[in-house]
From TrEMBL:
<keyword id="KW-0812">Transmembrane</keyword>
<feature type="transmembrane region" description="Helical">
    <location>
        <begin position="183"/>
        <end position="205"/>
    </location>
</feature>
<comment type="similarity">
    <text>Belongs to the exbB/tolQ family.</text>
</comment>
<keyword id="KW-1133">Transmembrane helix</keyword>
<dbReference type="InterPro" id="IPR050790">
    <property type="entry name" value="ExbB/TolQ_transport"/>
</dbReference>
<feature type="transmembrane region" description="Helical">
    <location>
        <begin position="139"/>
        <end position="163"/>
    </location>
</feature>
<keyword id="KW-0653">Protein transport</keyword>
<keyword id="KW-0472">Membrane</keyword>
<keyword id="KW-0813">Transport</keyword>
<feature type="transmembrane region" description="Helical">
    <location>
        <begin position="39"/>
        <end position="59"/>
    </location>
</feature>
<dbReference type="GO" id="GO:0005886">
    <property type="term" value="C:plasma membrane"/>
</dbReference>
<dbReference type="GO" id="GO:0017038">
    <property type="term" value="P:protein import"/>
</dbReference>
<dbReference type="Pfam" id="PF01618">
    <property type="entry name" value="MotA_ExbB"/>
</dbReference>
<feature type="domain" description="MotA/TolQ/ExbB proton channel">
    <location>
        <begin position="99"/>
        <end position="220"/>
    </location>
</feature>
<dbReference type="InterPro" id="IPR002898">
    <property type="entry name" value="MotA_ExbB_proton_chnl"/>
</dbReference>
<protein>
    <submittedName>
        <fullName>Biopolymer transporter ExbB</fullName>
    </submittedName>
</protein>
<keyword id="KW-1003">Cell membrane</keyword>
Length: 234
């Protein structure tokens, strides 16, 4: 009799284990997104578009900044030689063959040679502002996305919690766990997605700012070098 009791207990334990295994569930990324309901999927879609836009701006600006930072180390030496020898046309031709912000600033300064030094400096500064604007084009959008994406994700969190609370309030004493879970999925997935997009945009923005600052410093250094050349006694 004791042996029969042990066998029955073992059988029941095996059934419980099998039932536990049968309810075990894995969740893919696609299922995680679609489990959040319509509101969750709309917010996730918006965040995905923001992420794509972030990556596009980042790589497009990186290529532009990389091209802008390329300049022959011997460029300024050649400009000095041409200007010192009065070969203004040769200096202009050299600037026109080098496609970079530095060469365009120097070209602006060379075209003003013969005018007061203050006028040359003002022309170079105005050209520099335009070059900086072109370098920073759309970069501010990344700063906006880095702040807006987490808030949009938090909006999904609020919507998900409202849905969950609404279901609890209208459950009539019997809570539908699946419906409640859908609301929680919306809350959690949109929060995570918003944080991911925000972090990516924040890192991309700061990296572009650092790279842009290096090009701006290069522009300033070469402009000062050119002005010092003009300020040298004949």
């Amino acid at each position: 009799m004791i042996s029969n009791l042990i066998q029955d207990t073992a059988q029941e334990a095996s059934e419980v284990l099998q039932d536990g295994e049968s309810v075990e569930k894995t969740l893919s990324i696609i299922e995680l997104i679609t489990s959040g309901g319509t509101a969750g999927m709309i917010i996730i879609a918006v965040l995905i578009l923001m992420l794509i836009f972030t990556l596009y701006i980042y790589f497009e600006r990186m290529l532009t900044i990389k091209e802008a930072s390329k300049i022959d180390a011997n460029f300024m030496n050649q400009i000095k030689d041409y200007v010192s020898n009065g070969k203004i046309d040769s200096a202009q031709n050299l600037c026109s063959t080098v496609n970079s912000p530095v060469s365009r600033l120097i070209s602006k300064g060379v075209s003003r040679i013969g005018k007061p030094l203050e006028d040359i400096n003002t022309a170079i500064e105005n050209a520099g502002r335009l070059e900086i604007y072109n370098l920073e084009k759309n970069v501010s959008v990344l700063a906006t996305i880095s702040g807006a994406a987490p808030m949009i994700g938090f909006l999904g969190t609020v919507i998900g919690m409202i849905l969950s609370i609404f279901e609890i309030a209208n459950s009539g004493g019997s809570i539908d766990i699946k419906t409640l879970a859908d609301g929680l999925y919306t809350a959690m997935t949109t929060t995570v997605a918003g944080l991911i997009v925000g972090i990516v945009a924040y890192i991309a923005y700061n990296h572009l700012v650092v790279k842009t600052d290096k090009v701006v410093y290069q522009m300033e250094a070469n402009s000062l070098e050119f002005l010092d050349l003009l300020n040298e006694p004949s």
